[in-house]
Amino acid sequence: GQNIDQPTEMTATEGAIVQINCTYQTSGFNGLFWYQQHAGEAPTFLSYNVLDGLEEKGRFSSFLSRSKGYSYLLLKELQMKDSASYLCAAQDSNYQLIWGAGTKLIIKP
Amino acid sequence: DAGITQSPRYKITETGRQVTLMCHQTWSHSYMFWYRQDLGHGLRLIYYSAAADITDKGEVPDGYVVSRSKTENFPLTLESATRSQTSVYFCASLDRLNQPQHFGDGTRLSIL
């Protein structure tokens, strides 16, 4: 079956760094997406990885290892506004997105 | 304004009633999707459409009907609502595969 695993909840301190892990098992693979979702709002796109390695976008970076079925989202210089859920989604051979349940990130001052 | 809009934002109805959730996008994206989001679950795909007049079932299609007579509209109908369909519903659109999906603001549906 197809499956995405990510931690349910994480807590971090303002100004620190946090890494949110995601492991996936899909029928074929065409890329890995990360989305941010604030409470009561729609998911918004953060990053996309299809090749192995690290993609950096300002304070946010995303890493992919296709051989290990593993990705992580790295958030640096955490701000209170980063408190949100982070959704990992893998695209299978039919280009369908398989979604994780999301990681709720709590930022403490 | 260009974008993807859902209506209504909030809806309360009773079991057995028919309810239609609307989704409209102004980008002329080919692909459109309907998801439901429940606590403890990821986004679950209900139906999707690759183009006008082309629709297909997703992971959880039972109890739902869709149509896509025009590229920009993708309504979702619950023919006879049940309490288990209480959820937050998101519509999304996509121009090309391997591009990110863009989401509407969601419809919070409560069925009493």
Verbal overview:
The complex is a heterodimer of chains A (109) and B (112). In chain A, a hairpin with a 5-residue loop joins strand 9 and strand 10. Chain A is mainly beta and 109 residues long. Chain B contains no helices and 11 strands. In chain B, strands 2, 4, 5, 6, 9, 10 and 11 form a 7-stranded mixed sheet that branches. In chain B, strands 1-3-8-7 form a 4-stranded antiparallel sheet, with no helix packed on it. In chain B, a hairpin with a 6-residue loop joins strand 4 and strand 5. At the A-B interface, strand 5, strand 9 and strand 10 of A face strand 5 and strand 10 of B.
**How much is the average pLDDT of chain A?**
96
The low-pLDDT segments of chain B are: none
**Biggest chain pair interface:** A-B, 23 and 18 residues
Radius of gyration of chain B (CA) equals: 13 Å
- Tell me the total number of β-strands of chain B: 11
Write the layout of secondary structure elements.
The complex is a heterodimer of chains A (109) and B (112).
Chain A: E1 3-5, E2 9-13, E3 18-25, E4 32-37, E5 44-49, E6 53-57, E7 60-65, E8 70-75, E9 84-91, E10 97-99, E11 103-108
Parallel strand pairs in A: 2-11
Antiparallel strand pairs in A: 1-3, 3-8, 4-5, 4-9, 6-7, 7-8, 9-10, 9-11
Chain B: E1 4-7, E2 10-13, E3 19-25, E4 31-37, E5 44-51, E6 54-57, E7 64-66, E8 76-78, E9 87-94, E10 102-103, E11 107-111
Parallel strand pairs in B: 2-11
Antiparallel strand pairs in B: 1-3, 3-8, 4-5, 4-9, 5-6, 7-8, 9-10, 9-11
Keywords:
heterodimer, A: 109 residues, mainly beta, six-stranded mixed sheet, 11 strands, B: 112 residues, seven-stranded mixed sheet, four-stranded antiparallel sheet
Quickly describe the structure.
The complex is a heterodimer of chains A (109) and B (112). Chain A has 109 residues and is mostly beta strands.
